[in-house]
Design goal:
CATH class: Alpha Beta
Order of helices and strands: HEEHEEHEEEHEEEEHHH
CATH superfamily: VTC, catalytic tunnel domain
Distance between the termini: 32 Å
Radius of gyration: 18 Å
Number of domains: 1
CATH architecture: Alpha-Beta Barrel
Number of helices: 7
Length: about 260
Amino acid sequence: MYSGQNIALCKALEALEPITLEEMDSIKLMNRIDTKFLTDEQELIGFLADAAAAGYRVLVTQGMRISPYNSVYYDTPGLKMFIDHRNRHLVRQKVRTRVYENSGDTFLEIKRKNNRGRTKKKRMTIPGEELMDFRADTAATIFLEQKSAFTADMLSPVLSTRFRRITLVNPSLTERLTIDTHLEFHNFRTGKESALKDAVIIELKQDGREESRARKLLLARRIKPVRVSKYCVAVTLTAPAARAGRFKMKIRKIEKVIKSKITSE
């Protein structure tokens, strides 16, 4: 049913009741509190069984419970957004384009983190051919200037991230969990590639007003919160000249969870 996917994972997903994109309209959570968790695929299967028993539902698009994503991250020549994150700046931004491959929808997305730990995301639809470079699109460049601290001439594509995403929604429709597997990176500037093997990054997205059952389920399985950025991990793995600092410890932590060495080529 899910070509190339683990059969046990597919069975665990089938146990979850479906939810459609239309039903999820009330929980876009463009202004939210994010908490990330790190685990592996084997532990994920057990967590999905717990989530099904707790009434969580899984997003189904185009008949599929697993959705492939492709994102392109942009930064300055000196990797200002990467460095701001490395240096623990409380206020920081990410700029990316993203295609949701099941639907073909493509967006320019700007994520801003404020000094209270909340993430605000703004996005606009762009043509699919602009995934790799939106900078010739006048409407997109105006949007970038209005919603970020950057202009189009300051940025260029750095790397792509490909992964497969599972999205869960709680029964009261107040939170979402995105579960990313099979993460792969390609750096346009260095030509290097890397992948996180069977590492799984789970992100709990809440408006902050209700206690999370998912958090309790994750902690019960000793799946603990971790601060990790897919973009920063990808740069660390694929840009040897970048001063990664503390992000190298993030790589070691991922390797410890998956019990395997992560390399680039």
